[in-house]
Specification:
globular, two-stranded antiparallel sheet, 10 strands, alpha/beta, 17% strand, 7 helices, eight-stranded mixed sheet
């Protein structure tokens, strides 16, 4: 298993001035990146298959019938559906080294972005910057093209191939669908990944970073991202971070883009209590 280049550092340094409060936006070279917590008013995602041609599909909320049933004995009144309880972020303790190790060990399971795609070298990838800034030993189970429902390897495959004796102190999952598939298939993949993390590594903290794209989350990609976020949200102990991008012109983040991702992720992890 590869180790992020920054993992050898014994301690990270503080990034004072960078805070994530629901939605943090930082702009460098025309790129804006932020991490937002789940919003309680997210519309339900559709369960239709993804069009290979990339055409947009409306959210189920847009397709819902506007006519609500009348309340019994009150023909002029409508019954309001109860609001879904607001999502509450789980709380964590600061990661401490275990198993007589000098640093906390973090397993990053992810796609090409987590693998360093777009960075000029391994040392400028966001995984390496994360290790450097927080003083963590970040191990990589990553591959370009991997996703929840991608052609193998999937994110689940990458997790299963990780050393069973790694005993990470934290698991971070970052990725998207990776292929065209019904939303129900993605939901099942999320559940299988979640249960496999638990069976393989026990009661380890889990942080999920959902999909992001060069031009932001819109159309069918937005539906996919919502589906993944909602599925992970079923476990109240999982922290879901939802990237927000604007004006990212290239297919992959360059060094500045990876630095932005790392900066916002570090701030979010600190806010969650996982790092001092």
């Amino acid at each position: 298993m590869r180790r992020a280049p920054g993992s050898s550092a014994s301690a990270g340094f503080s990034l004072a001035g960078f805070l994530v409060v629901l939605l943090a936006i930082v702009v460098i070279g025309g790129t804006a990146v932020g991490y937002a917590r789940w919003q309680s008013d997210i519309a339900a995602a559709t369960d239709t298959a993804i069009d290979p041609a990339g055409s947009d599909t409306a959210d189920a909320a847009d397709e819902a019938d506007d006519d609500l049933p009348a309340a019994p004995d009150s023909p002029d009144e409508v019954v309001e559906e109860p609001e879904e309880p607001a999502y509450e972020d789980p709380t964590f303790q600061v990661l401490e080294p275990t198993e007589n190790r000098p640093q906390p060990v973090v397993l990053l399971v992810g796609d090409g972005y987590a693998d360093g795609r777009g960075a000029s070298n391994a040392g400028t990838a966001y995984s390496s910057l994360l290790a450097r800034d927080l003083g963590w030993d970040v191990r990589l189970a990553t591959m370009t093209g991997a996703g929840y429902v991608s052609t193998p390897p999937t994110l689940l495959d990458l997790l299963v191939q990780s050393p069973p004796d790694l005993a990470p102190d934290l698991v971070i999952v970052q990725g998207a669908y990776g292929a065209d598939a019904p939303n129900d298939a993605a939901k099942s993949a999320v559940e299988e990944l979640r249960t496999t993390i638990e069976s393989q590594y026990g009661d380890v903290p889990v942080v999920v970073v959902t999909a992001f794209a060069p031009d932001g989350i819109t159309g069918q990609l937005e539906t996919r991202e919502r589906t993944v976020a909602r599925a992970w949200r079923e476990d109240p102990d999982v922290l879901v971070l939802r990237p927000q991008l604007d004006g990212w012109s290239d297919p992959s983040p360059d060094d500045a883009g990876h630095e932005l991702i790392a900066t916002e992720l570090v701030a979010a992890l600190r806010e969650a209590g996982l790092a001092p």
